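Apologies for my clumsy wording, but could you write out the amino acids of a protein and the tokens describing how it folds?
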Amino acid sequence: MARSAKTQEVLALVERVAPTNATVLIGGETGSRGPSHQHSRRSSGPFIKINSTAIPDTLFESELFGFEKGAFTGAKASKPGKFELADKGPLFLDESAISPRPSR
């Protein structure tokens, strides 16, 4: 899978960090999450993916943090956010999520 020295270094780091409770941000090409997620203590928890480009700016905060019933017009029921849903599992920001959001 990984033959370059740099990739071997990254995989060695993943092996050291994955069994811990450390919060880790991994950036890279598509597929970068694979080894870290598979060896993580959180691998059996829910895997929550966020594609921020698919979330309208006006709903972004509510999607990430959730909301309570009656918090705003139209909030007829409480809704957990992505962070809450990912409890005990990984939260994955896909490649589009880490690029700057366009200003309007």
The helical segments are 5-17, 33-39, 60-65, 82-85. The CA atoms of residues 30 and 95 lie 7 Å apart. Confidence is low (pLDDT under 50) at residues 97-102.
